Amino acid sequence: MALVLREDPESSLTEFSVVNLDELIGISQHVPIATDSFPKPVVQYESGVLNDYFRAGRMRIVSTRLRKELERYTSGEVQYFDIVMLDKGGSPFEEGRFYMAHLGLEVDCFDFEKSDYDLRENGKIRIIRKPVLREEAIRGRHLFWIAKTSQLPYWMVSEELATHLKSQDFKGICFKTLDELSML
Predict the structure, then answer these.
(1) What is the pLDDT of residue 29?
(2) In angstroms, rounded to a whole number, what is the distance separating the alpha carbons of residues 102 and 119?
(3) What distance in Å separates the CA atoms of residue 33 and residue 35, rounded to the nearest whole number?
(4) Could you tell me which of 94, 97, 82 has the C-alpha nearest to residue 42?
(5) Beta strands 143-146 and 98-103: pairing type?
(6) Dihedral sign, CA of 170, 167, 133, 146?
(7) Strand 59-63 to 155-158 pairing
(8) N or C: which end of the chain has fewer CB within 10 A?
(9) DSSP letters of 126-159?
């Protein structure tokens, strides 16, 4: 079974805004980024504690410590980009401690036969009430997006990876089953 990696609502949320959002707006979340033309993301601290995992807009930001653990379970599916973090006064801080993590792997694992969902007139999924994933398609995958389902914009993690990350006491992450999600 795969689990959803999310920001932990029980922890102090880390709030950042993206300063150079206009430069990053066209970046697709689900495909690898051409690194030669990718601008360095600049994020401004707003409030909260610096967790190991947090979001700044659509970007997922990870600590060096979390990056090292994710790299143990992935082989190129995640690209890591240096970011510039600014404090409230606009000065850079925490240089080299955090990265934008970009997951470029979609797995075609949504079970259209067993899931409960409605389609739009154009054939795209309108709403998903009960998602089911095909286990054979995700076997051996530790971190991925679910292909063909924009209503499920979550990083999916294997139980093995989730168990490992829980044991490392990372701040700012939690894991949910697809059934536990309320925003489908």
Answers:
(1) 67
(2) 29
(3) 6
(4) 82
(5) unpaired
(6) positive
(7) unpaired
(8) N
(9) EEEEE--B-HHHHTT--EEEETT-TT---EEEEH
pTM above 0.90, yes or no: no
Structure-block tokens of residue 142: 């530790």
pLDDT digits (tens, 9 = 90+) for 78-130: 999 999 999 888 888 877 799 999 998 889 999 999 999 888 888 778 888 88
Q: Which residue has the tokens 């969902």?
A: 117
Domain ranges of the chain: 2-173
**Coil, strand, or helix at residue 124?**
coil
d(Cα 51, Cα 154) in Å, to the nearest integer?
Answer: 18
Compute how many other C-beta atoms are within 10 angstroms of the C-beta atom of residue 69.
18
CA-closest candidate to residue 15, choices 54, 59, 61: 54
Q: How far apart are CA 30 and CA 57, in angstroms?
A: 15
HSE toward the beta carbon, residue 143, CA cutoff 13 A: 23
Q: CB count, 10 Å around CB of 129?
A: 9
Give the SS3 label for residue 55. Answer: strand
Cα(7)–Cα(51) distance, rounded to whole angstroms?
9
CB-based burial label for 177 (10 Å; 0-12, 13-18, 19+):
exposed
Residue 117: C-alpha distances to residues 108, 113, 130, 149, 179 (Å): 16, 10, 7, 11, 13
Return the CA Rg of the chain.
17
Q: How far apart are CA 30 and CA 51, in angstroms?
A: 24
